[in-house]
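Cross-posting from the modeling subforum.

Setting up a comparison between two proteins and wanted a second pair of eyes on the formatting. Protein 1 (sequence, then structure tokens):
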Amino acid sequence: MKGAKLNQTLCRLRHRSSERLNIATESARPHAINFAPSHGVSFSPQWAIERALRLHRMFCRIDAALARGEKFLMVVRRRATHCRKPRRFRCAPDRQFRASFATIIRNYYTWRRCGRCPAALTLRFVPRKERITRESLRVFLDSCMATGITSMAAAFRSLPATAGSYCAYIRRIPENVKRTLRRLHRERRAVQRLARKARNLTEPRKPFNLPQAVSGHVDAAGNGCDAPSEALTGY
């Protein structure tokens, strides 16, 4: 009986030592893990990669505890208690690593669903849009005051290449300038409407071409007529 317990203890210690060796090997070689961004992702900072490696080591230990027969919620609760105290990243000391009970469960299922790889836990970021410079804003205002422009949206569409969005340009313009531009564009649209009305009044109307009557037409009274005038007048 004592020999069987000793063998179980030795097997458990051997399993723990091999697990620690694998985790240490993976953490020592972060370049060997594929952190390639997915479609539409621009970059992952270094602290996000370190966070993914920490979660990966934690989940490997959770799997080892489940293999020993421990309950999942008990293991996660123990890990959440351990991660309750914030710990600073080595590559970014100004940032802190903290994982709650729900965060561990959510990331664990994501990690397991994506093949138990650290790359599934990296945070994905997109680059921030370029800031609108004074020169680009001046070009936009010149386009708003150009002849034939009746709205700020039309002025934005006329720009050759823009660094920001239409809303970004509108937010950079002061309120008094926006009011002036809107009043200018409103008056221009009113002038265009008056010009269209005047053009419709001065232009001669096109003559209305009546369809010619075919030969053998029968009028409303039932009398046959061959001439177009007879077909139209009914005489």
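Protein 2 (same layout):
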Amino acid sequence: MADVLHIGMMLGKPLRFVRAPGEGPRFPWVVESDLAKAMNLSRNHRRVMKMMTDEGEAGDDAMIVRIDGKAERCISHSLARGLMDAIEISRLREAGEIEAAQAIDADITTSPMVWAYVAAAKAAMDEQTKGMSDGESFVFFLDAMKAENGGAQ
């Protein structure tokens, strides 16, 4: 059973965040079905997202938890960001907007969808570090970043 840590908004749709599994500082995880709805995915992109977030494919970056009695797949921050980047580029290429796709490929942070997700994820992180001093919160963030990157410095 997982408690919802924070409910943020992404492009007018709610995104539920939960605490990451395991010990130590980690970025909050997002409910995959919420992210898919907020991204307004085509059937093909929904299928790809489902395939990529399957525990067999996603490894330690996906888990099934019970939220309010319902089984929900939650995915890590890094998997969510990677999926958003890939799907946003795919959408632009499908629409024939090659220059825009190439620009985003070079700097994916230009996407309004990504900005909306990052704002919601930051609010979830703020909720997770509530009660910590600024210094403790900063160290928590750095340690979470390190854990997200497989312990890399």
